[in-house]
Amino acid sequence: MDPQQQPANEDASGGSCKGGSFLCRQSSTRWTPTTDQIRILKELYYNNGVRSPSAEQIQKISARLRQYGKIEGKNVFYWFQNHKARERQKKRFTTSSDVPMQRSSVANASWKPEDPLIHSNKSPSINHTGYSLASSSSAGVLPVGQMGNYGYGSGTMEKSFRDCSISSSGGNTNEVSISHGWVGIDPYYSSCSFFEKRKSLHGALDEEQ
Amino acid sequence: MDPQQQPANEDASGGSCKGGSFLCRQSSTRWTPTTDQIRILKELYYNNGVRSPSAEQIQKISARLRQYGKIEGKNVFYWFQNHKARERQKKRFTTSSDVPMQRSSVANASWKPEDPLIHSNKSPSINHTGYSLASSSSAGVLPVGQMGNYGYGSGTMEKSFRDCSISSSGGNTNEVSISHGWVGIDPYYSSCSFFEKRKSLHGALDEEQ
DNA sequence: ACGATATGAATGAATG
DNA sequence: CATTCATTCATATCGT
Question: Is the pTM of this model over 0.85?
């Protein structure tokens, strides 16, 4: 497995606007998360219980993930939405109105293969904890203890922690040296800058900050 | 009762190969529908107009199909998704150089007459029972036929603009449906579209670069 | 054995 | 939040 397609170069906009004629649709501009980005996202999702990050959190997260490749806020937003939705959906298909039973047998082996396991080549004893979005920086704020709600049902209260500053310079979180480099901050230009972002979502937008 | 009524014998597909043809022994990862399963799926698709079964239907369908071989909910789900998508895709090309179809209201049962032809096995008379999808005792279960038949559009429009038609059918409805966002630079662009403004993310999702 | 095609699976992006 | 669409990847199967 490891469907991770080849190292997606972040140039992303590579193809650019399907040249040819007007009508520029950033084709192929679908964000392709890198393994590291996915790893982190899952960490946030499972370890931190983040399910529907708020605008601020989204920004922070995306900022942090940007270290690993191009990414925008909406990507993070959609990622969480999808991940959550799919998890639920899976349950919906498999779990038929099953009465509360204790046997833990048949209830699984159905949908998602669940964590694809991002096997990075890290040492067997990694433990790069403290990666919680919230820790790493200021001394004061610290993870408010995860609401320990992995089992869902917490959906609405995930706004426990507050500031998640992404102190990039701490030089701390560098727990694993990513293998294939290319990370870097690439100056990705959007060829089609006409409507690249400011107007992509629903077209509206605004002023509000 | 024994909900776990899984016909163990089917397992990989061993016994299901009664088609008298090939395909026997393929323990691979991916689900390989048996001829019977395909037959039924197509029946549902074409005869019943099922295109996007909902969770419950999926459960029922998969339960029924399980008689013919191993199958899980997700398989059914994906099957319909793919079938629908591919049919559309295929048609997209077929209808490419044709008169601008007027796209009348496709609000009726009329799945295109193309492809039905389910070449089933040699069995001269298969005769699968009627519809007994309903497996539970509870009432309410009925033939899965939920032909909603939303035509979606055979729109052969250029790319993927969903039809932005304001239902103007003669009058039995007064719903104005518009929503699509995305400002395009396309010639057709004119009506539908625009803001949705949901004040929750947009501002945040968008980020400065 | 390959290469082409069909089709299952996965997931980003949207819409309602 | 549920549902749906589009795209792409992975693999099975078939043709030559």
Answer: no
Rounded CA gap, A29 and B145, in Å? Answer: 38
Do A202 and B185 lie within an 8 Å CB cutoff?
Answer: no
The token duo for A192 is 């089609």
Chain A positions touching chain B (beta carbons under 8 Å):
22-25, 54-56, 58-59, 62-63, 72-74, 77, 89-90, 92-94, 96, 98, 105-106, 109-111, 194-195, 197-206, 208-209
Instruction: Evaluate if residue B150 carries a pLDDT over 60.
Output: no
Nearest to A93 among B55, B206, B209 (CB): B55
Q: CA B67, CA B82: separation in Å to the nearest integer?
A: 22
- Nearest-CA neighbor of A69 among A181, A198, A190? A181
Least-confidence region, from A35-44, A119-128, B25-34, B48-57: A119-128
Residue B208 (CA) to nucleotide D12 (C1'), in angstroms, measures: 46
Nearest to A36 by CA among A137, A128, A164: A128
DSSP label at residue A125:
T
**Can you tell me which residue has the tokens 């029972």?**
B129
DSSP assigned state of A195: G
Q: Which two tokens stand for residue A55?
A: 């605008």
**CA–C1' gap, A159 and C12, in angstroms:** 25
Residues 6 or more apart in contact with residue A143 via CB below 8 angstroms: A48, A132, A134, A135, A161
Token output for B82: 């793919």
